Amino acid sequence: MSQARPRGNFLQTILITTVIWLGLVLVFQRPNQNNANVGKTSTELMNVIRDDNANIREMTMMSTIGGLTQKLEEEQKKQIITPEQKEKALLHAEILHIDAQLKASILRLNRGEGSDHNLLQLAYNKVKSLKEKYEGKPLWTESFDVADVSANKLYGWKSWTLEGLYDKVKTQLMANSKTNTVLGFIPGYYVIDFLVGMTGRSPGFSYAFATLLLAVLVRAIIYKFTQRQLMWSRQMQQLQPMIQEIKAQYTDKKTKQVTDPQALNMKTMELYKEYGINPLAGCAPMAIQMPLFLIVYQCMLAYQFEFTKGTFLWMNPSAHAASSFFAENLGGKDNIMIALYGITMITSTLLMPVSDPSQAKTQKGIGVGMGVLFTVFMFFNFFPVPGAFVLYWTFTNIFATLQSLRAYRMPAPPLVKVNAAGGGVIPGSVTRKETFMDRMAKKFEEAQELQEKRVRELKGDKPEDGGEGKDGGMSSAIRPNGKPKGPNPGSGSKDNEPRKPKKRPQ
User: Fold this and answer.
1) C-beta of residue 233 within 8 angstroms of C-beta of residue 354
2) Which of 49, 206, 291, 293 has the fewest CB atoms within 10 Å around its CB?
3) Do 226 and 83 share a domain, yes or no?
4) Collapsing DSSP states into helix, strand and coil, what is residue 376?
């Protein structure tokens, strides 16, 4: 027999698992090499990349660059090329790819399709990482040829230095960020700019304070939902003894397996309905928080270049000059802030109550794993974000922790029956409209009745109506017009024979 599946924060688990899975794919999956490029030399693969650059096929270039990397590694091992030649060839291929992404974005903007902001952001992330690696070295100012578009009014170049390409992509992205909208209607740049302008645009205060205001705004939006989740979790904990009793009724003592999962689920749903508790209520904060997270992230990216004007405590030019471990401003990556984010994320996760104590380790383990995963991603630039966004995220975690601590200090809401076990509202309880849980409980009851009916039919059991038909024997004695049926003249029964009149005494 299969065991009944635990009813924890299902949606939360799905969302977290999806994020972790996408992260692992991002880190460990290598680009698939095009079958058409198998067996080609590094020179031939480089020609394919040049052709893709000329025709602005930026999507197919990644797989070819992956194949080129493998081929160059093989040639270096065979001492056909030197490490310096390999490094220069790979850098040239990356520049060709970034150039194709830049031209594709400009082309779409010229066609009236709107500049592909995400594509331009990818190009910037890549050229920024190359800047950190090569700035101040000879390859930073060396010229690399690309497809000649010098005669094209849209473009006007035929080669790039890494320094020049970085400046061009940055300038294009800065201009695009001011006009790009989040979800098609939210002016992300101007939302953050308004918050910064509220306190006078002071470099040492306004930019960091804007992230604090944004965190307060987001937490205010989800405050009621989170508070309900916290209180609901405490009520669910009070229900656990009753839920365990129900499980014990449908669990084999020897095998510890659930004997009737459907009946167990139905009884559990009836218990939730009886106390007016919705086990899916805990999903609401996560369902709301994820879209808000993505919206804030896009707004922060739109303002990332303006954040370079702001500082925060150790995130300043003086500290950065002493050690690159510190960010120069709120627009850069700061390792201390990333570590603080990880600590606050794990702390807030551990303080979140769980509805089912038996699933506590699993739920909190997933939350802690997500916090560690995001910390590692940001630390190694797999998830590049400005320091201001990490600061905002840290503020959000602190507010979540404070709300959890406050909820723990509040008295747990008492369990009150709002529905009778057999249906109907208990007198004196708060009346309410039919909820999703009520409809779900009805569906379980209908499914259970249908299953029991099918089992009886398979066993050949007759309906419990005395064998007189569906109407319990009444249908055979009542005419359609509502009058009793008379005797059947065609019947051979003595009861149906006409009675002879009695003789009068003489």
Assistant:
1) yes
2) 291
3) no
4) helix
Query: Contact, 115 vs 109, CB < 8 A?
Result: yes
Is residue 476 in a domain? no
Q: Give a yes or no: residue 429 inside a domain.
A: no
The residues, any chain, with a CB within 8 Å of residue 502's CB and separated by 6 or more, are: none
Percentage above 90 pLDDT, the chain: 35
**Assigned token pair, 189:** 């740049």
Note whether residue 42 is domain-resident.
yes
As a whole number of angstroms, the distance between CA 157 and CA 140 comes to 18
Cα–Cα dist 179/217, whole Å: 24
- Give the model confidence (pLDDT) of 155-195 as tens digits: 989 999 999 999 999 999 998 898 888 888 899 999 999 99
| Last residue within a domain, chosen from 356, 378, 409 | 409
Domain span at 265: 206-409
The answer on pLDDT for 360 being more than 70 is no
pTM: 0.70
Is 89's pLDDT higher than 90? yes
- Whether 172 and 213 share a structural domain: no
Helix then strand count (H, E) for the chain reads 16, 2
Q: Where are the alpha helices (DSSP H) in 250-316?
A: 261-274, 284-302
94/86 Cα distance (integer angstroms): 12
Structure tokens at 394: 């840290």
- Tally Cβ neighbours within 10 Å of residue 92: 20
Least confident of 87-96, 198-207, 265-274, 380-389: 265-274
Is residue 365 one of the residues assigned to a domain? yes
Structure confidence by residue, pLDDT tens digits, 406-449: 887 887 777 777 655 555 445 444 444 555 555 655 666 677 67
134 and 238 co-located in one domain: no
- For residues 175 and 41, membership in a common domain is answered with yes
Q: Are residues 304 and 358 in the same domain?
A: yes
